[in-house]
Design a protein that fits this description.
Layout: H1 11-17, E1 34-37, E2 41-44, E3 56-57, E4 61-63, E5 65-68, E6 72-75, E7 91-93, E8 99-105, E9 109-112, E10 119-122, E11 129-135, E12 139-142, E13 169-174, E14 177-182, E15 190-197, H2 198-203, H3 208-211, E16 212-220, E17 224-228, E18 235-243, E19 246-247, H4 261-267
Antiparallel strand pairs: 1-2, 1-12, 2-5, 3-4, 4-7, 5-6, 6-8, 7-8, 8-9, 9-11, 10-11, 11-12, 13-14, 14-17, 15-16, 15-18, 18-19
């Protein structure tokens, strides 16, 4: 049986925390809000009495605070108190539940969410956290303890799977910029745009692994993007939609398609992460 302890709340921290989005941990009120530090005890991602100052998970970041009775407050992002100009830190979400980056505790220092031998993830289907974070001064923090439920969020609200359609794009050059437009796709919450060299694509027989040169735009929520037109040489662009359930496809599956675009763009090392 687990005993839950709640913090004596700090007014200054709570006022700062109201600047972040409202927490979305433990949506079913099942006490699925705790991680465990082997040297510091239980850590609460939904502390009570402080106006939604707990952790908020979004597609690309975590904000808010966690509370541990033995070390105090843990900040998930510099956005909590608008301190990013002085210390730009935070826990990142890759859009699909793989976390990275650092949280900060005034009392024990940095906490790494993607250390070399572990890492913290969120299952987009269940909202359950898993894995471990590392603090040099406190050791491992486990997000799916053996006792009690794993921490849970209702972050991923997309229904259905990843986008299945490929958007058609139009390009228009204006001075030193290229305006790229497309129609929004069902299920797509953001878009990824890669580019490459047309000459290499032709000479390689349509090998996007050789011809993909850059992730031109990542995590674009709008239906358009602007890229520099100053890069020398002829360029091609491919676009795909994505949501928290997964990425869509660059493949058109049409008779004119050259190569296996998704696989080859990934093997190029220049695909969007």
């Amino acid at each position: 049986m687990r005993i839950h302890r709640h913090p004596a709340l700090c007014f200054a921290v709570c006022v700062a925390a109201t600047m972040a989005a409202a927490e979305n941990i433990d949506p079913s009120d099942a006490d699925a809000q705790f991680a465990y530090g082997e040297n510091i005890g239980w850590i609460n991602a939904e502390p009570t009495g402080c106006m939604d100052c707990g952790v908020h998970v979004s597609d690309f970041s975590l904000t808010g605070w966690m509370w541990a009775e033995n070390i105090g407050w843990i900040s998930m992002s510099c956005e909590n108190d608008s301190s990013c100009t002085n210390a730009d830190y935070g826990v990142r979400n890759d859009g699909h539940g793989a976390l990275s980056g650092f949280a900060w505790s005034e009392n024990v220092g940095w906490i790494h969410f993607m250390p070399a031998t572990s890492g913290v993830t969120i299952d987009a289907n269940t909202g359950e956290f898993a894995g471990r974070a590392w603090g040099e001064n406190i050791g491992w923090i486990t997000f799916a303890p053996q006792t009690g439920d794993p921490m849970r969020t209702d972050w991923c609200q997309s229904t259905g799977g990843p986008p299945t359609q490929v958007p058609e794009i139009t390009l228009e050059k204006s001075g030193v910029e290229i305006q790229i437009n497309w129609a929004s796709l069902p299920l797509a919450d953001w878009y990824e745009l890669v580019e490459g060299d047309i000459g290499t694509l032709r000479s390689s027989g349509g090998d996007f692994g050789l011809a993909t040169t850059a992730c031109s735009q990542d995590n674009v929520a709008a239906d358009s993007a602007v890229v520099p037109a100053s890069t020398p040489g002829d360029r091609w662009f491919l676009l795909r939609g994505a949501n928290c359930r997964g990425k869509g496809t660059y493949d058109s599956n049409g008779p004119g398609q050259m190569g296996q675009r998704d696989i080859e763009a990934e093997t190029s090392g220049n695909d969007c992460p």
